[in-house]
Automatic annotation (TrEMBL):
<dbReference type="Pfam" id="PF05930">
    <property type="entry name" value="Phage_AlpA"/>
</dbReference>
<dbReference type="InterPro" id="IPR010260">
    <property type="entry name" value="AlpA"/>
</dbReference>
<protein>
    <submittedName>
        <fullName>AlpA family transcriptional regulator</fullName>
    </submittedName>
</protein>
Amino acid sequence: MYTAPTASTDPLMRLPAVLAVTGYSRSGLYLAMQECSFPRPVKIGRLSAWPESEVRQWIEGRKAARAAT
């Protein structure tokens, strides 16, 4: 049974949005995923999207690593 999305649902980000917030190029993003330094997308049929919370966590991790040096 289908249930409508709620406010607590983690929105999904498509590739253009991920590239915009990370600053990666398309090839750079896929290289980072291959090296396991960036989260992999969720596959929904032929669609690929990243949970916004995982992308935000990755960004916060990069900030924390920069602050630690």
